[in-house]
């Protein structure tokens, strides 16, 4: 019984933790512009993140090593420093977007300006990182994030034309109002938001933080293989809500209030309360994850002491990096930069950087020095290589498409 | 079993040795260095070996050996080129190494090493002054 | 001397013909006993006639997966070989000169 509870907790946390500002905004934007025609990308992205998150979790459990330590060891200093530069900057961009997301979500609840919420949110994130245990931090934000299930409920309450919704999803076509280029640009954005690299840095470092061993692999596999797809369904529900309500009225998603609009039409104030709690939890949780990821990547590259399982004074530079990153985010948002815009850029840049993260994980998962007998099987390698091809194509196509479409305008 | 059987035909078979074999790039460079308690200290940014005479026949001179792990400024020059002056090198003596596996483990405490002074500086001047930093997370 | 001074250095034979570059340096822990480990003695050099930088060492193991990547990297380093340190005649300021009687050995890592 106790074991079943632990499994359930893990899965629920994974569902709640799956969504972040990138998924919220991108799914909604895509639904409001393309209907269900890009849902297949969410499915593809979820399969991809399952394959690679599971792999990085396995590497962490068997070798006790986190992803970025391994990137440095296997790619050498020169390639790893280029990788670090790109990964770190994109992570910083995502971190800024997430802090902005917390502020926007709190604005929905309070009608206080988001710029005023930013320092409060950043300070709260720092306090949690400084003082709260890893497992508690993960479980609380994950479980509260489950409130976003209200998006799935809203789809039913809106009594949509199911045949038309599934038809759009099953035989996708580019809507008359959009071009092929914008369609593929948003396909890449959606793919990037599902497979954001920080999730892998965080997942593997988290495995080391919680001292996973071979025994914990079953649990982590269930979390990923059940939790992430269910999280992906929430992503699809957000897109469906936007398709049903925003698309016919031609409403553009420029802030989180448009993301929440369909839910308010479907379920009124109570439903909106759930959305707000869910959005705050999801973006707050993702801010924690991206902040920790920025510390993880830098500390692991340079071989510094890191981890929340140590007291802050035992991992001084790790904590200093995270403080500086949060200050950076506050600074950027203080200029009045729009968090939704930052999010849209961050998911595309994530897509560009994907190969840098996923290739080394695949290589190490095949390395007997680290993995012993637990190296990848043929089937996993075949799927992973196929994904790597998709990832590289998406990465190469991202910048040209960004230029052609004027960033999806 | 060798790497590429076809073109190995002309090659003599590989030497075998009594001791542990370490290819520097493959088994040493960029590896994590842990202290005797398992606390991360740094990475192996480069290695210092005994000097080899230049432009002189080497026959009869003993093979070079590793004397220090190098870290710090060496990383920058390894990536971007150039060479730091010997005085700027941060060294961890080879004799302090206890084990070389997937990680390099030292037989000494990180506190006594020059290589960990930046960690100590950040700790003593910044992190130690923030309340709560001395306790385990709850 | 630092190791980076040897890595990627051009290697020539006694007649001045180019053989490639130093891909890696092999050490063996079998020297004089030290405080904790025995001394790590430079046993020889791995030389690649093609690419100057090693990548993951696929040319030195029988690792075959993931297949596509393993076979590409092995192909890039085809023709790599090992020479014993005793077969090195001298170092000049820019090159490594092998002795007249040097012998190419397999670069494979012993099991």
Which structural traits does this protein have?
heterotrimer, A: 409 residues, mainly alpha, Amino acid/polyamine transporter I, 16 helices, 81% helix, globular, B: 138 residues, alpha+beta, SH3 type barrels, four-stranded mixed sheet, three-stranded antiparallel sheet, 3 helices, elongated, disordered N terminus
Architecture overview:
The complex is a heterotrimer of chains A (409), B (138) and C (111). Chain A is mostly helical and 409 residues long. Chain A has a single domain (23-405), classed as Amino acid/polyamine transporter I. Chain A is built from 16 helices and no strands. In chain A, helix 4 crosses helix 13, helix 5 (114-131) packs parallel to helix 12 (256-302) and helix 12 packs antiparallel against helix 13 (316-334). The mean pLDDT of chain A is 91. Chain B is of the alpha+beta class and 138 residues long. Chain B has three helices and eight strands, in the order E-H-E-E-E-E-H-E-E-E-H. The longest helix of chain B has 9 residues, at 117-125. Chain C has a domain at 3-53 and 80-98: PRC-barrel domain (SH3 type barrels, Roll). Chain C has one helix spanning 67-76, and strands spanning 10-12, 18-29, 40-48, 81-84, 88-91, 96-98. Chain C has a six-stranded mixed sheet with strand order 4-3-2-1-6-5, with no helix packed on it. The longest helix of chain C has 10 residues, at 67-76. Chain C is globular, with a radius of gyration of 15 Å. The termini of chain C are far apart. The chains are: A mainly alpha (409), B alpha+beta (138), C mainly beta (111). Chains in contact: A-B, A-C, B-C. The interface between B and C is large, with 57 and 58 residues.
Topology of this structure?
The complex is a heterotrimer of chains A (409), B (138) and C (111).
Chain A: H1 2-18, H2 21-34, H3 39-63, H4 67-110, H5 114-131, H6 134-145, H7 150-157, H8 162-170, H9 180-194, H10 197-209, H11 217-249, H12 256-302, H13 316-334, H14 339-365, H15 368-371, H16 378-405
Helix pairs in contact in A: 1-6, 1-11, 2-9, 2-11, 2-12, 2-14, 3-9, 3-10, 3-11, 3-14, 4-5, 4-10, 4-12, 4-13, 4-14, 5-12, 5-13, 6-12, 7-11, 7-12, 9-14, 9-16, 10-12, 11-12, 12-13, 14-16
Chain B: E1 20-23, H1 24-28, E2 32-34, E3 40-43, E4 46-49, E5 66-71, H2 73-80, E6 90-93, E7 97-100, E8 104-106, H3 117-125
Parallel strand pairs in B: 2-8
Antiparallel strand pairs in B: 2-3, 4-5, 5-6, 7-8
Chain C: E1 10-12, E2 18-29, E3 40-48, H1 67-76, E4 81-84, E5 88-91, E6 96-98
Parallel strand pairs in C: 1-6
Antiparallel strand pairs in C: 1-2, 2-3, 3-4, 5-6
């Amino acid at each position: 019984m106790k074991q079943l509870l632990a499994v359930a907790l893990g899965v629920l946390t994974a569902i709640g933790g799956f969504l972040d500002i990138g998924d919220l905004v991108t799914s909604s934007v895509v639904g409001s512009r393309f209907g269900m025609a890009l849902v297949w990308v969410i499915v593809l992205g979820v399969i991809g993140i399952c394959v690679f998150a599971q792999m990085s979790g396995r590497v962490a459990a068997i070798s006790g090593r986190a992803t970025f330590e391994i990137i440095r060891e296997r790619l050498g200093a020169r390639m790893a420093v280029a990788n670090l530069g790109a990964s770190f900057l994109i992570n910083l961009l995502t971190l800024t977007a997430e802090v902005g997301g917390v502020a926007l979500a709190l604005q929905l609840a309070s009608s206080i300006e988001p710029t005023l919420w930013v320092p409060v949110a950043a300070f709260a994130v720092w306090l949690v990182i400084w003082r709260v245990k890893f497992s508690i931090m993960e479980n609380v934000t994950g479980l509260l994030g489950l409130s976003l299930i209200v998006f799935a409920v809203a789809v039913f309450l809106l009594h949509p034309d199911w045949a038309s919704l599934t038809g759009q999803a099953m035989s996708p076509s580019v809507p008359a109002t959009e071009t092929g280029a914008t369609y593929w640009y948003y396909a890449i954005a959606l793919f990037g938001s599902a497979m954001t690299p920080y999730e892998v840095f965080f997942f593997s470092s988290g495995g080391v933080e919680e001292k996973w061993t071979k025994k914990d692999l079953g649990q982590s596999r269930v979390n990923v293989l059940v939790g992430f797809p269910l999280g992906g369904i929430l992503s699809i529900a957000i897109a469906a809500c936007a398709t049903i309500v925003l698309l016919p009225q031609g409403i553009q998603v420029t802030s989180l209030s448009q993301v929440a609009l369909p839910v308010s039409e479907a379920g009124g104030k109570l439903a909106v309360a759930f959305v707000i709690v869910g959005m705050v939890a999801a973006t707050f949780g993702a801010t924690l994850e991206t902040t920790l990821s920025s510390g993880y990547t830098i500390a692991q590259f340079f071989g510094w002491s890191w981890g929340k399982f140590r007291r802050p004074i035992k991992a001084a530079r790790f904590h200093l990096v995270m403080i500086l990153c949060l200050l950076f985010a506050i600074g950027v948002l203080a200029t009045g930069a729009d968090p939704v815009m930052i999010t849209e850029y961050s998911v595309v840049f994530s897509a560009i950087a994907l190969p840098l993260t996923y290739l080394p994980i695949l290589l190490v998962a095949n390395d007997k020095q680290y993995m012993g007998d637990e190296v990848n099987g043929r089937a996993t390698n075949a799927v992973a290589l196929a994904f790597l091809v998709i990832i590289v194509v998406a990465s190469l196509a991202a910048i040209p498409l960004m230029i052609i479409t004027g960033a999806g305008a | 079993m060798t790497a590429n059987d076809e073109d190995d035909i002309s090659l003599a078979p590989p030497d075998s040795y009594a001791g542990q074999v370490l290819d520097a790039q493959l088994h040493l460079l960029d590896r994590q260095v842990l202290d005797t308690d398992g606390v991360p200290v740094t990475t192996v940014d480069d290695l210092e070996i005994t000097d080899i005479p230049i432009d002189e026949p080497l026959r009869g001179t003993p093979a070079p050996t590793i004397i220090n792990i190098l870290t710090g400024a060496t990383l920058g020059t390894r990536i971007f080129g150039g060479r730091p002056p010997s005085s700027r090198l941060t060294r961890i003596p080879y004799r302090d190494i206890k084990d070389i596996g997937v990680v390099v483990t030292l037989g000494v405490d990180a506190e006594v090493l020059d290589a960990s002074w930046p960690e100590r500086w950040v700790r003593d001047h910044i992190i130690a002054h923030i309340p709560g930093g001395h306790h385990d997370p709850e | 001397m630092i190791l980076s001074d040897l890595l990627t250095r051009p290697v020539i034979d006694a007649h001045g013909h180019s053989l490639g570059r130093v891909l890696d340096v092999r050490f063996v822990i079998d020297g004089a006993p030290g405080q904790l480990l025995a001394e790590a003695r430079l046993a020889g050099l791995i030389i690649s006639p093609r690419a100057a930088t090693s990548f993951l060492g696929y040319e030195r193991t029988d690792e075959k997966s993931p297949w596509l990547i393993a076979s590409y990297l092995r192909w890039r380093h085809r023709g790599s070989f090992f020479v014993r340190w005793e077969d090195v005649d001298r170092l000049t300021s820019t090159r490594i000169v092998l002795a007249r009687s040097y012998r190419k050995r397999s670069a494979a890592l012993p099991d």
